[in-house]
Each structure stands twice: as structure tokens, then as C-alpha cells.
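Whiteboard transcription, Tuesday session. T.W. wrote the C-alpha cells on the left side:
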């Protein structure tokens, strides 16, 4: 099974999710460090739809200036545009496999798609 994780190595939950993926037999993991390789808008829309989230629900407030910029009150397109410009606004981690997409917070949620 192939799995892709949009990963931030500075995030404990992201590291724990990656460890679960790496420890699961038969899983071929692709790691995308999204702060180095930012998201495309279409990919964000696809991940959010697959995880059953809106961009607002996936918006990271902690450790960002998203609230000061008014992003929690912005529309979906504006939030996604801000996330493309500054990927730190995307909460993490997201994992995609053939079985679906999950926002893996807490990290054990990843097991649903393995």
C-alpha cells in the first residue's frame, strides 16, 4: 500500500503519525515536507474533501498570525489562497492512501486508512 504524509518534522503529532506509517508492514511511505514543497490549491481542496473538512476546519491558528489576518472569518477560496502562500496555515498532518484521506490528529486516526 502507498501512503503519502504531508509532514512537518517539527510537529510531534506529525512525527508520531510518520512512525506509525513506517512501522506498518507493507506500507510504502512518501513524505512531503510541505513547508519546503508547498501545497497546490487543487491538492488542498482534494485533501480537505477527502478528509471531510472545510479549509476553515483545517486552518492552523496556533503559532501563526491567521487570526490577526482575519482568516477564520474568510471564505474558503481566501483561506486556501493564504495556505498556498504560507503552508504553515495548514494544520497537520494529512495522510492519503488508496483507502482515503485523514487529518491525523490524534495520530492514531491514520490506522483508519491502513
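and on the right, the sequence the group agreed on:
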Amino acid at each position: 500500500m502507498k501512503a503519502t504524509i504531508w509532514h512537518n518534522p517539527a510537529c510531534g503529532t506529525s512525527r508520531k503519525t510518520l512512525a506509525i506509517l513506517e512501522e506498518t508492514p507493507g506500507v510504502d511511505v512518501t513524505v512531503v515536507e510541505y513547508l519546503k514543497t508547498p501545497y497546490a490549491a487543487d491538492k488542498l481542496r482534494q485533501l480537505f474533501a477527502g478528509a471531510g473538512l472545510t479549509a476553515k476546519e483545517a486552518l492552523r491558528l496556533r503559532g501563526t498570525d491567521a487570526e490577526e489576518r482575519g482568516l477564520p472569518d474568510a471564505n474558503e477560496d481566501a483561506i486556501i489562497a493564504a495556505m498556498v502562500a504560507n503552508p504553515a496555515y495548514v494544520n497537520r498532518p494529512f495522510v492519503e492512501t488508496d483507502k482515503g484521506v485523514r487529518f491525523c490528529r490524534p495520530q492514531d486516526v491514520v490506522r483508519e486508512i491502513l
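Someone added at the bottom: The longest helix spans residues 12-23.
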